[in-house]
Each structure stands twice: as structure tokens, then as C-alpha cells.
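#lab-general

N.A. 3:47 PM
ok so I finally got the sequence cleaned up, no stray characters, all 85 residues accounted for. can someone with queue access submit it? mine expired

B.Y. 3:52 PM
send it over

N.A. 3:53 PM
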Amino acid sequence: MKKQHVRLSLAALICLILLFCIYSAARLQAAPPAVPVAGQPPAGPTRLLRYADISKDKVAFSYAGDLWTASREGGAAVPRHRQRW
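B.Y. 4:20 PM
back already:
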């Protein structure tokens, strides 16, 4: 009788661990990334983007008070001047 009780407890524990793993994996897949991935546009509107200008080979703009430049053909923007508060 005691062996059967131990087996049932062990089976219940394994089931709980399995359910927790499935729940954790589903939650990680559903969560948006905390930090935006470089080179990808933001998910929402860019409300802090200001004063964009285009030259022969570069695009310059201000974002959140910092000056950024990027190639006119596309690619990741590079910070040129970061404002220190």
C-alpha cells in the first residue's frame, strides 16, 4: 500500500513539473521582447522621432534627444551624439 502511494505521488509530481514546463514555454513565446532588436522597426508609433533630413548618402534624425545617422540605402542607425542628463 505504501509503495502504491509513493508511485502515485511521484506520478503527480512529474505531471505538475511537465505542466509547469509547458506553461513556461508558452509564456516565453507569447511575451514580446523586452529590448527591441537592432535593425528592426519599432512595433508602435515613433513618437520621439524628430527633425529628419536626407543628404546624398545618409539619413540623419533626432530620436529622444539623441542624434542618429543611417545609410540612405537602409540598415541600422548609428548614434552620433547622445545627450547626457
